[in-house]
Write a structure and sequence with these properties.
The chain has a single domain, classed as Nucleotidyltransferase, domain 5. Helices cover about 40% and strands about 15% of the residues. The protein contains 8 helices and 5 strands. The radius of gyration is 28 Å and the shape is globular.
């Protein structure tokens, strides 16, 4: 009798489990991961039609050599622009020289002929670790995802990325940068080596002078990028679909 009762109980329990599986529930409370659509080690489920806004961070650096490490970044300037191309914030800092680094003869010869810019880059230098931590915090506080914008991006991004990874251990920019010259090439449909500020349409060129002071040049180059961006958007909006 006891054996028959145990068999009957097992059948009832098995039936309940099968019914629960058919209904898509195990009777347990949903975990936070299940409610949010995420699991450990995975990315949140993408929400269609939503994205983080771009913040264009036009950046210029001054250095005493062609590469970071053996040579130092002397000055960094960034100007942040909204997607609508409004300038919303700026950052600038001068840096103490890297320990064991030295100026490259070619760069130092150039600086000798640009004394005012050299003096501007040497005022109140900060320790790289302190200045780059402040820079990363500034980038984090921007109201969107920072997009590095440079002219040429390969030069400025090389120094900024090296300093961020060396002294902060991370880069809010990720591993990407937007090159103004490449963007102009695409908009004009010209060969890359045919693009320079002297060959770009005059309407793109900002009135501000290129002073070789990092923040001045970051603002000027940000305005150049925004002029190209506005024209490209206007051109695209004038093309009727189909």
């Amino acid at each position: 009798m006891a054996s028959r009762w145990r068999v009957s109980s097992f059948v009832v329990l098995l039936g309940a489990l099968l019914l629960a599986n058919a209904c898509g529930t195990t009777g347990r409370e949903p975990t936070p991961e299940a409610e949010s659509g995420t699991s450990a080690g995975s990315r949140p489920a993408r929400t269609e039609g939503r994205r983080e806004r771009d913040i264009y961070v036009s950046t210029d650096i001054e250095s005493d050599g062609p590469i970071p490490g053996p040579h130092s970044m002397l000055s960094l300037g960034s100007a942040a622009f909204s997607e609508g191309c409004d300038q919303i914030a700026t950052f600038s800092a001068n840096f103490e020289l890297l320990e064991g680094s030295r100026g490259h003869p070619d760069n130092m010869a150039w600086w000798a002929g640009n004394q005012a810019a050299w003096e501007a880059a040497r005022q109140d230098p900060r320790r790289p670790a302190v200045a780059m931590a402040a820079y990363a915090d500034w980038l984090d506080a921007l109201p969107g995802k920072p997009v590095f914008v440079g002219y040429p991006a390969a030069w400025d991004f090389m120094f900024v990325q090296w300093y961020l990874m060396r002294f902060v251990g991370r880069s809010p920019f990720g591993h990407s940068a937007l090159d103004i010259r490449s963007y102009a090439m695409a908009v004009l449909d010209w060969p890359y080596w045919g693009i320079s500020k002297s060959t770009m349409p005059e309407r793109w060129i900002p009135e501000a002078a290129h002073t070789h002071v990092a923040l001045d040049d970051a603002i000027e180059q940000g305005q150049l990028f925004c002029n190209i961006l506005r024209e490209n958007r206007s051109r695209r909006s004038s093309i009727s679909p189909g």
